[in-house]
Write a structure and sequence with these properties.
alpha/beta, 3-stranded antiparallel sheet, 421 residues, 7-stranded mixed sheet, 14 strands
Length: 421
């Protein structure tokens, strides 16, 4: 279908978020065609300064802010909150992840905004919700994950130290849930004309997406029926790692019948399920040796033909990105030379999906453009805002955190309050 429409074309979003939870939410809205304007403090979103720097930008900042427009407002200066209020009045959606209460201190209480603009959808993302005993606690993703059961579950199941997660699950899941809630609110508005105030709590999101939550709360080990954490990976002769789908102690009799493991089935250590569980380390070491004797993955696939056994190659993110599948799917875009970011992970027969313009914005790059289009301000009005310090911009990225750990994003103590996530 030529010139396919974008599903959220015409929807205007004010994005008062930073780091991850809010930016992934608003990036998804942008991918669906919304005009997303990121409101950035003079100190800049910390992700701009977070290494590695690729193509001139912090790589995480680029990944979650590509396709947006950027307007830099100093909300601590007189006139800053007023300008933000004007933008919100022109918008369909406001997404924010300030700590609860910050909007109200700026004179922009969500309930007041909804009274003045009944069709406005406000989405607030925080660690523990907008009200209640934990509302005002700082809540970055590692903190929420520590308190929501994620670290305890992993440490207990692996019988080792409780370690931080490699991904910011609390942020990323919360942002995706927030996007879904915004879409539902916009659908409701189409039918009723009324907007909504959505309250997304990262802790609650982690409970919702934890497939073991109900079992664990009832006092059971939630992983027993779906213990994917016990699956092992092994190195083949060519050095390639493969991941075997299933618990080694359960699969061992079948693996031993297909692989050259002399006397394995007669070995008393491996003769029964109980013995195999008791001798887990020896069993894995035996499989390590046997699979190291298999030249490569195609050879392993041939050995396992006719069995229910499945072993897949372990790929790095880069290997997947460079695969035939990723090229065929169009899974990446290149907004700056050498900087690749994932595209929206779905395709539509009827609509165009993906970052509009496919560029990473500089701080304040679209100040005049947005104020002219959204608010009808002329050049003289923009100049006055610039002269007063309300509007700021920079054609350079701030220093990285390893170069200037604090001044990279807090050169002046003017930031309202750090957002959550």
């Amino acid at each position: 279908m030529p010139n396919k429409p974008r599903p959220l074309s015409g929807i205007q979003v004010v994005d008062c978020t930073r780091v991850l939870s809010g930016p992934i939410c608003s990036r998804m809205l942008s991918d669906m065609g919304a005009d997303v304007v990121k409101i950035e403090a003079p100190e800049a979103d910390i992700l701009r300064s977070t290494p590695p720097i690729v193509g001139g930008f912090g790589s995480m900042f680029a990944q979650y802010n590509v396709g947006k427009r950027d307007l830099s407002i100093d909300l601590k200066r007189e006139g800053g909150p007023d300008l933000l209020a004007e933008l919100i009045a022109a918008a369909d959606v406001l997404v924010e992840n300030f700590r609860p209460g910050v909007l109200s201190r700026l004179g922009l209480d969500p309930e007041r905004l909804r009274r003045e603009h009944p069709g406005l959808v406000v989405c607030s993302i925080s660690g523990w919700g907008q009200a209640g005993p934990w509302a005002t606690r700082p809540a970055y993703a590692p903190m929420v994950q520590a308190e929501a059961g994620t670290l305890a579950l992993g440490g207990r199941l692996r019988q080792g130290r409780m370690m931080g997660e490699t991904m910011q699950h609390a942020d990323l899941y919360a942002g995706m849930v927030a996007c879904q809630a915004i879409l539902a609110a916009l659908f409701h508005r189409e039918r009723t004309g009324r907007g909504d105030h959505i309250d997304v709590a990262m802790g609650e999101v982690l409970l919702y997406v934890n497939e073991h939550a109900s079992a664990e709360i009832a006092g059971h080990d939630g992983s027993l029926g779906f213990a994917t954490w016990t699956f092992e990976s092994f190195r083949l002769g060519d050095g390639r790692a493969v991941h075997v789908m299933g618990r080694p102690d359960q699969l061992f009799p079948l693996l031993a019948s297909q692989l050259p493991i002399p006397g394995a089935l007669e070995d008393p250590r491996f003769a029964t399920p109980e013995a195999r569980a008791a001798n887990h380390d020896a069993l894995v070491a035996t499989l390590d040796d046997a699979l190291a004797a298999v030249p490569d993955h195609p050879s392993l696939v041939k050995l396992l033909e006719g069995t229910p056994l499945v072993a897949v190659p372990v790929r790095s993110t880069r290997e997947l990105a460079e695969s035939e599948w990723a090229h065929d799917r169009g899974a990446l875009s290149e907004p700056e030379p050498g900087l690749f970011v994932p595209t929206a992970p779905w395709r539509s027969r009827e609509h165009e999906i993906g970052a509009a313009g496919d560029r990473v914005p500089r701080r304040g790059e679209h100040n005049r453009e947005v104020l002219t289009e959204w608010l009808g301000k002329d050049a003289a009005s923009c100049q006055r805002l610039e002269a007063s310090g309300v509007l700021e911009s920079s054609d350079r990225e701030p220093p990285t955190l390893d170069q200037a750990p604090r001044s990279a994003f807090r050169e002046k103590a003017t930031q309202p309050d750090d957002g959550d996530g």
